[in-house]
Amino acid sequence: MVKTLGTAFEDQIERVVKISKSPTVINEENVYQEGDPRILAVVDGMVEQLLLPGSGLYGIDNLEELYKKAESGKACLLLVEHYSNMDLSIVSLLTRLAGGRGEEIRNSIIAIAGMKLNEDNPIVSAFTAAYTKIIICPSRSIQDLDPEKDKDEILRVSAINRAAMKSLIRHKYKSKLVLVFPSGTRYRPWEPDSKKGVREIDSYIRSFDYMCFIAINGEVLHVQQTDMLNDSVSRDVVHATVGPVVDCVEFRNKVLAETNNDSDKKQAVADAIMEVLEKMHTDAEIKRQELLNKNQ
Fold first, then answer.
1. Is 1 exposed, middle or buried (0-12, 13-18, 19+ CB in 10 A)?
2. Whole-structure pTM value
């Protein structure tokens, strides 16, 4: 019998919903949300139950180098692959378990999150309260709005995005690591374009100093065509692999130098990011499979 997130963690879900104070309606006053350590402890426990021995974070030295740059006043990004709604939880927990300055680094992370996580489902909203985040309305959601029928909503989300950008500017120089999923959504096998990088990621690259890419291999929460609570769960060996620190300006300039003048330059940067992540994922999967084979 396939277990879903809702059935496998019914008690934890009930507990989190009771203690969560996560807003279910977003406005310009609550785009910045501090993580709740009580909920974080519950989510950490859930993830630990699903991780098999051999799971871990590789590249803690790279994370520590990036964090040192953040401490020196630089704006620093984490660009992470996105396969499930547990990706942030996995990166957070494995960073803590990696030792060194892992605990301190994981507490410095601010995730960029879409409004849907707060507004579509109160249970999902409750779980996202575990992590410090800045809420935005993605451009794809704005594009779906009708200029005439949805005037009020367009005004609301525009105000939210302006407030989010102000909050990002305010926090990114305070020894923080800003975590972004460059695909903007989870990868869904039945929608190949869901693995495509979004053009907006170019704006982050232009306004940050340094970044690290993070590949995620192994899967404990499997996306379904319904909602998060119906996503299926399974135990697995999960590896988070952190690449070396990259200078954002140098990366972007190199991409643009190799891009045809008639091409969409923002999309070219987004595509280059996803290519790096895909190569990291492929290389890391070879190593993960070797480890799995040794342990069989």
1. exposed
2. 0.94
